[in-house]
Amino acid sequence: MIRFEHITKKYDGAVILDDVSFAVKPGERLSLIGPGGCGKTTVLKLLLGLERPNKGNAYLFDTDMSHASESEKQLVCRRTGMAFQQGGLFDFMTVRENLLFAMEHMTQKTAEEMDNTMQRLLAGVKLAGTAAMFPHELSGGMKRRIGIARALCTEPELAIFDEPTAGLDPVTSTIILQMIGELSGAHQKTSMLVASSNVEIAIRFADRLLILHEGKVEADGPWRELLLNGTEWVRNFLSVRLIGLDIEYALGLDLPKPFIAKHWHNAAKL
């Protein structure tokens, strides 16, 4: 579904990605995570063919997006749903028109099928009453939720979510993540990739983490294994963002028991 082969990307001589390789299989979920400036957004730009690498190749559905023509990129992108960091909605269109526009240009659905899909997804993100509203009438969290609906309305083979909860309060973040989980349950064949700086969001979204650090792949594997047995840097990166959580909340995340016992002094009482 996705193949990054020895990608190196530089901007003005500065190395942003340094020999990065990874792959995503059909139906797989992956959380791309790392500190700010580690190259997550650059990975997405290369994957969608918006940027070209200095070295290596980025494949999407076996198409080399590094060297594909614009027509080839368009064909590939029709198979991909993208939820942008700020929603990415057309300001001059209503919510209904935003979703229908995507389906009209990327699917063969009939008008009735498109309308049914729109209503189902808006209900799924708990915004059934917003179809006639314009983006400026929506809150930031509502725009993100509409963006998720639009990313999935074409029933893509691959769905990409760029920082879906950045800048949002914890309650709204949890709602959005639940929305992704619930809607993706109806699209089990869809591969999914989320780029996030939030460790909690990353581990809730996918079992597999790809951690970038200073332009390199620092770790790639199941988050529980990395949390307990990763390198010192990886363990510190993951744990420092989790040990401040309330223990009941931490248990709800299904954190490993050895990790809980080490970092929460009252763990023995549970």
Keywords:
6-stranded mixed β-sheet, 4-stranded antiparallel β-sheet, 270 residues, 11 helices, globular, Rossmann fold, alpha/beta
What can you see in these coordinates?
The structure is a single chain. Strands 6-7-8-3-9-10 form a six-stranded mixed beta sheet, sandwiched between helices. A four-stranded antiparallel beta sheet has the order 2-1-4-5, covered by helices on one side. 40% of the residues lie in helices and 23% in strands. By secondary structure, it is an alpha/beta fold. The model has no long low-confidence stretch (mean pLDDT 87). It is built from eleven helices and ten strands. It has helices at 40-47, 70-77, 95-106, 111-124, 140-153, 170-185, 199-205, 223-229, 232-239, 247-252, 257-263, and strands spanning 2-11, 14-24, 29-33, 55-60, 63-64, 80-83, 158-162, 191-196, 208-213, 216-222.
In short:
The chain is an alpha/beta fold and 270 residues long.
Mean pLDDT, to the nearest integer, reads 87
Rg, please?
A: 19 Å
The N- to C-terminal Cα distance equals 42 Å
Order of helices and strands: EEEHEEHEHHHEHEHEEHHHH
Which architecture of the domain at 82-182 would the CATH scheme give at its second level? 3-Layer(aba) Sandwich
Protein topology:
Layout: E1 2-11, E2 14-24, E3 29-33, H1 40-47, E4 55-60, E5 63-64, H2 70-77, E6 80-83, H3 95-106, H4 111-124, H5 140-153, E7 158-162, H6 170-185, E8 191-196, H7 199-205, E9 208-213, E10 216-222, H8 223-229, H9 232-239, H10 247-252, H11 257-263
Parallel strand pairs: 3-8, 3-9, 6-7, 7-8
Antiparallel strand pairs: 1-2, 1-4, 4-5, 9-10
Helix pairs in contact: 3-5, 4-5, 5-6, 8-9
